[in-house]
Structures
1.
Amino acid sequence: YVGYYHGGGDPSWNNFLGGRVFFPAMVGFGVLALLQLLEVPFRSTAGQAIYRLAVVNAKGEPVGLLKRLVRWAIVWLPLIVPLLFVVLLLKSAAPTAALLCGLGLLLLWIAAAIYAVMHPNRGLQDRLAGTWVVRR
């Protein structure tokens, strides 16, 4: 099992939600967020480099470091902060509250996926940051 935890310590990590779902998700999302944060100074992520894409502003100029950081924060902070809250609820022995928060996050994630399907050419982070992703 991915993320299966066989250890002593806090018993809330031994249940299904804490040990097999939220902890591996937090580690995975944290690694992805950190990798993309480290790519911010290089003006393109690995995926953008592979597909020869660039992030530009409304005038077609490459965006600055601050805009790239804002765009990164719009993508990752709404995902990581609530998941940290769920993990803290699990550690404080409030599994029902954690389950409800987790279901709420799932609904928000589904809503974001529906938005991405309805508007495939420009992501929500691009709309909020005032950027566009274009071919180089």
2.
Amino acid sequence: MKAARTSIARCVIAECFGTFALVFIGTGAIVMNDVSGGVITHVGVALCFGLVVMAMIDAIGDVSGAHINPAVTVAFALAKRFPWSRVAPYIGAQIVGAVLASLALRALFTDHPTLGATIRSGAQAQSFTLEVILTLILMFVILRVANGAKERGVVASIA
């Protein structure tokens, strides 16, 4: 696989940075929407998440594959398009990136009660089912447009 040619250290740093950017910008948009009285709107928050994922695929896709989500890393490994030996380091880097972004947001918005957390609005089973279906759709799209090792190009980031 092409990913094996890129050092694991470079891949882990890229995944950590990409996940940091996703959480900091996406969750930060939720927080900013809350503190601004809804100026960004739900559509604006969704665009922030989508555009940061697109930017990270373009920026680090050729280094690490820009998984920036443990579900993506596991999906590629299960599909035999990513080596299992790199799953734990990738997920570790993604967790570190997400925690660092959350800590940075906590330092910036000390009074915000939920810090952009996703809070269910329906029954637990309904929310879980919705999450599973949406994750399956996301994984289907990602697995159809990406190869898991090196992502570059318009199709991978737009999808």
3.
Amino acid sequence: MLANLNPANFDATARAVFAYQSAHNPVFSQYLKLLGRSKIQIPFLPISFFKTHLVQTGIWKAETEFTSSGTTGQITSKHLVADLTLYEESFEKGFEQFYGNIEDWTILALLPSYLERDTSSLVYMVNSLVKKSNHPQSGFYLDGQQPDRPRLCSAVCNSH
């Protein structure tokens, strides 16, 4: 269903996904009941629910679990992913929809506080895009590193 998503069928697809999630995701279903929302209005589930509830549609084993960074002493939110291949496909298609082929881009990532966290979805996504870009300039800047001006200029001047 989502592989063929386009502007012409977006509304119908959104309504179908909403109906499915409403019926099969207990947390979302209960949230809708408490809000008293009709099927026409599609609310976002608050991020705090991902800290306090298992947000999952159906019964399946997560292939991976991403967590938020949180701050010292806070409970982190959890994002369960059933299929990393589907997850990668979705963010790659999103990138391509807005920017074009990832291989045409150089990805320079400045995520100093994230790199120590092996459960960060942001680091996972950026790392995947860096690898798929196939540009030797693509990569991460680590804590305290200053951007290399020739590298930065080369990346910016040779991109779109």
4.
Amino acid sequence: MATSVLLSKVSIAREFNRLGYNAFIGLYSIRRNAVYPSPLEDVAKMLQYIITNHESLNVSIDRYSICGFSAGGHLAASFCVKGIGYDQYSLARPDMLMLAYPHTSFLFDKNSKTSKNFLGKDFKKQSVREAFSVERHIDKDFPKTFLWQCKKDKVVSIKNSISLAESLKRNGCRYEYI
């Protein structure tokens, strides 16, 4: 049975469990404590805990997926980026990524709370924004991705999902965008 690490949403985790998946809810640094690399370190610690305790938890560690919503979507997607995510923590690449209304880019809303929190004092620097905009770092080995967002989302611009989907397509990645 595959394992999923959800970066929020208790009801979603319960539904995954009901469907027969091992789902874990992970807490991660937010607001002023969310400056890179803290949130990614939190994800790595969660996964290391699951891997270390997989026998007592009775879960498979052969493959795993990661899921995130809004700013948690940025964190989940960032963890899938080689160079800043999984490989920095000597972990296997996630097999699948699930994103709901994700804030994946720092190139559209330059004054968002997510930008200020994750990028810290350098949030206005273009080079820093590009370094952590997920769509700029997709390659052919990026995990299979399921991505959805409402067109009229008033919190996270749909430009995030559109640019991510375009990058996934351009790089020949397996994805579904609704």
